[in-house]
Design brief:
Helix content: 55-70%
Oligomer: single chain
CATH topology of the largest domain: Tetracycline Repressor, domain 2
Number of strands: 0
Structural class: mainly alpha
CATH superfamily of the largest domain: Tetracycline Repressor, domain 2
CATH class of the largest domain: Mainly Alpha
Strand content: under 5%
Length: 200
């Protein structure tokens, strides 16, 4: 694939993720094309129908999630920080989109991706527990399902930046609860637009 075609494909996948998280599993294809800055014909050249687009979105998200876990495991100073880094990146990269589009996919086989992710997340948790930084009862599903929940919009008309800020605020609170010692993340006041909802 030519470099420009590859860039267009990446932009289409990223635009699709954003649109799905914003409006649901079946966003208008022309809106995705506009979001990617390309014409609808370019979208159809890469993805002949909605099913091929959604399957590509799923593969893209899973690959990015695995890459984020590998990077966190390599770069973070300890297992707890690796877990925090991975979970924040996973929410930013739109892993929660999988839960929205799964019912529209035709029995996808994600065995290889799931095995890779289980290995990586298992290594992160094992490291954090060995370092006595992560509670022993924390399991891989606790991480996977939390990311899915924090990736979903709260559906009260917030902008995407506000949605994301709230998701990261709540994620930090959740991650703090997974640790054995005090590992405060980014100060919550810096992350949240919630003050507008508090009573006067």
């Amino acid at each position: 694939m030519r470099a420009d075609a590859k860039r267009n494909q990446e932009r289409l996948l990223e635009a699709a993720i954003e649109m799905i998280l914003e409006v649901g599993a079946e966003p208008p294809l022309d809106a995705i094309a506009r979001g990617a800055g390309v014409g609808i014909g370019t979208l159809y050249r890469h993805f002949p129908d909605r099913g091929s687009l959604l399957n590509a979105v799923a593969e893209h998200v899973l690959d990015q999630a695995a890459a984020a876990a590998e990077k966190a495991l390599t770069e973070a100073p300890d297992g707890y920080d690796a877990l925090r880094q991975y979970m924040h990146v996973a929410v930013d990269r739109g892993v929660g989109v999988l839960n929205l589009i799964y019912p529209l996919l035709d029995g996808p086989d994600w065995t290889a991706q799931r095995t890779r992710m289980a290995t990586l997340l298992g290594a992160i948790l094992e490291r954090g527990k060995r370092e006595t930084l992560i509670r022993d009862e924390v399991r891989i599903p606790d991480i996977v399902f939390a990311i899915i929940r924090f990736s979903r919009p709260v559906a009260i008309g917030l902008s995407r930046p506000d949605e994301r800020a709230i998701a990261h605020r709540h994620l930090d609170i959740y991650i703090d609860g997974l640790g054995i010692t005090d590992h405060a993340g980014t100060p919550l006041a810096e992350l949240s637009p919630l003050d507008r909802f508090e009573p006067n």
